[in-house]
Design goal:
single chain, 109 residues, alpha+beta, 4-stranded antiparallel β-sheet, 3-stranded antiparallel β-sheet, 2 helices, 28% strand, globular
């Protein structure tokens, strides 16, 4: 799983999920982390590349659950805060572009 300013990339997904397509999220932890993303109604649902026991896509509820295997040294609260920073920053960038950008400034983005 790779978090970028534009979205979340996971090897089990065919395409990344844009942060602005995510309405909400939660991090669950028991023996391993799981990241659950609730997608906006207008968001395109990603496809899974292969079958994996810790990840699933609920197309009816528009929920993507990703097993966060390989995240070591982080507590669930820290991982949730990290995801939250990316999520909030993407919405902040989108708001800045739509409300404060001039046509000339938008062409340079």
């Amino acid at each position: 799983m790779v978090l970028t300013p534009d979205g979340l990339h996971a090897s089990v997904l065919g395409e990344p999920i844009a942060w602005t397509d995510v309405a909400g999220y939660a991090v669950y932890a028991s023996s391993r982390f799981a990241l659950r993303l609730w997608l906006n109604e207008n968001a395109t649902l990603p496809n899974k590349n292969w079958r994996t026991p810790y990840s699933k896509i609920d197309r009816r509820e528009r929920i993507v659950t990703l097993g966060a295997v390989g995240i070591k040294g982080m507590k669930p609260a820290d991982f949730s805060a990290l995801v939250g920073r990316y999520h909030h920053a993407a919405y902040a960038r989108q708001e800045l572009v739509t409300t404060h950008a001039t046509p000339a400034a938008m062409s340079s983005l």
